[in-house]
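Reply to dn_fold:

You asked what the input looked like. This is it:
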Amino acid sequence: MSNINPSDASSKKVAAGICAILLGALGIHKFILGYNTEGLIMLLATLLTFGFGGVVMGIIGLVEGIMYLTKTDEEFLNTYIVKKKGWF
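and this is what came back:
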């Protein structure tokens, strides 16, 4: 299994969830979870489209933030830390 303990997963879940809801268009939540490629995609999509892509990325961030925060700590750990599910 993973070498991260459940309390660390819980704090990552909260941090990533709040960042996804508030700063989803910038992909900060992806960087928190260690998904650098996905985070870079979101950040560049927002910046290179002069913010227009940020609307779509913001919606994706909002949905992902809600998904992170509604999962149990165990589900979050298994899905996003162990299995490394990058999108939704």
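The chain has a mean pLDDT of 92.
Hope that clears it up.
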